[in-house]
Write a structure and sequence with these properties.
The protein is mainly alpha-helical. Helix content is about 70%, strand content about 0%. The chain is globular.
Length: about 200
């Protein structure tokens, strides 16, 4: 990303949403065809809870490349946050049939989350087992495994994987405070401790 996007990310992590969006709009004005700039703007909107505006950005990016994985990731999560579970599940099931490699793994992970949030726990657990099996031979980000355990209500394992992500200095960790999928962990002292160690105010 260009410097305006990095600055936007910094402001967003500090919960300075309007300043973050101003930087992202500036980045888009300099490169209006950049799928990264468009998707990153949507990501900031997602983290600010402005889901409909976020979806417009992700749809715009996916019109340029239907398999752009970052936009697929954020659009799927945003659909879930909007309660559009059927849209998310149908899309991700179709993606599993047609995508390959890392994009297929990402679709499987997102489908796990969608199924868990839709109350289809057994189907979600099947995908979770496959994700764990993949992790024996391929790298799976600890942050993904933390999210998966969080939506499956296994708090201890969620915190164990968050600790692993922290030790790896995962680039996801500065966003911990702004991820709604971790809402059920927020009252736990381990969550406050992680925020403190990352340098964020609990």
């Amino acid at each position: 990303p260009n410097p305006f996007q990095w600055c936007g990310y910094l402001y967003a992590a500090q919960e300075r949403v309007e300043e973050a969006l101003a930087m992202m709009r500036r980045a888009q004005s300099l490169d209006p065809l950049s799928m990264i700039a468009i998707t990153n703007t949507g990501e900031i909107l997602y983290r600010a809870g402005q889901y409909e505006q976020a979806l417009a950005q992700f749809d715009k990016a996916l019109e340029m490349d239907a398999q752009f994985s970052k936009a697929l990731y954020w659009r799927s999560l945003t659909w879930m946050m909007c309660g559009r579970m059927a849209d998310a599940i149908n899309f991700l099931e179709n993606a599993l049939r047609h995508f390959q490699g890392e994009t297929k793994m990402l679709a499987s992970f997102l489908l796990l989350i969608a199924l868990a949030r839709a109350g289809q726990r057994e189907a979600a657990l099947t995908l979770f087992a496959a994700l764990q099996e993949r992790g024996k031979e391929h790298y799976v980000p600890p942050y993904y495994l933390a999210l998966a355990n969080a939506v499956l209500d296994d708090k201890d394992q969620a915190f164990a994987w968050l600790e692993k992500a922290y030790q790896e200095r995962s680039g996801w960790m500065p966003w911990l405070k702004l991820e709604p999928l971790f809402d059920d962990l927020r009252t736990d002292m381990r969550f406050s401790d992680l925020l403190r160690r990352i340098g964020l105010q609990p």
